[in-house]
Amino acid sequence: MVLELKRPSNPTIGSLLQDWPTWISYFASYIFIAVVWINHHFLFKYATVVNLRLVWANFAHLFSVSLIPFDTDWMAETRLEPVPVAMYGFVFMLVNITYRLLMRETISARKQPDQPATRLFRLRSISTILVFGIAMVVALWHPYIGFGIDCACLALYLRPDLRGIRS
């Protein structure tokens, strides 16, 4: 993503601030990718068995994450226009759907899955999928609000809460 950042046309603060959609898009996406990486890393600490379904769920999740730079650049180029911002919500909804699949495969591969943790995962993932869906729709009429909802939804994943799972 950093390769898509372009230098301002003039060496002034005003010129730098003029490109605020690029900087905010990049910053939000960087934080999203960091959160995805942390949660992915934390989840895989609890994988006890690797099977083909888990590997394919992981590939699906990595594919959905690979769409983030494309949409980040599109949002920045269009200065947060409605369709690119709605697509941003869609990409993160897809990231969450594939993360849910990955969680399900990781937990179900365990010999003794923890039921409270499974319920926590299900509740958190379904609620964020719904919130990203709402953000997509809102973004079509109010892109800044839709983008704000996307960013606020990130708070639910800042801490990979797997207290209930024991290795």
TrEMBL record:
<keyword id="KW-0630">Potassium</keyword>
<dbReference type="Pfam" id="PF06736">
    <property type="entry name" value="TMEM175"/>
</dbReference>
<dbReference type="GO" id="GO:0005267">
    <property type="term" value="F:potassium channel activity"/>
</dbReference>
<dbReference type="GO" id="GO:0016020">
    <property type="term" value="C:membrane"/>
</dbReference>
<protein>
    <recommendedName>
        <fullName>DUF1211 domain-containing protein</fullName>
    </recommendedName>
</protein>
<feature type="transmembrane region" description="Helical">
    <location>
        <begin position="123"/>
        <end position="144"/>
    </location>
</feature>
<keyword id="KW-0813">Transport</keyword>
<comment type="similarity">
    <text>Belongs to the TMEM175 family.</text>
</comment>
<feature type="transmembrane region" description="Helical">
    <location>
        <begin position="20"/>
        <end position="38"/>
    </location>
</feature>
<dbReference type="GO" id="GO:0015252">
    <property type="term" value="F:proton channel activity"/>
</dbReference>
<dbReference type="InterPro" id="IPR010617">
    <property type="entry name" value="TMEM175-like"/>
</dbReference>
<keyword id="KW-1133">Transmembrane helix</keyword>
<keyword id="KW-0631">Potassium channel</keyword>
<keyword id="KW-0406">Ion transport</keyword>
<keyword id="KW-0812">Transmembrane</keyword>
<feature type="transmembrane region" description="Helical">
    <location>
        <begin position="82"/>
        <end position="102"/>
    </location>
</feature>
<keyword id="KW-0407">Ion channel</keyword>
<keyword id="KW-0633">Potassium transport</keyword>
<feature type="transmembrane region" description="Helical">
    <location>
        <begin position="50"/>
        <end position="70"/>
    </location>
</feature>
<keyword id="KW-0472">Membrane</keyword>
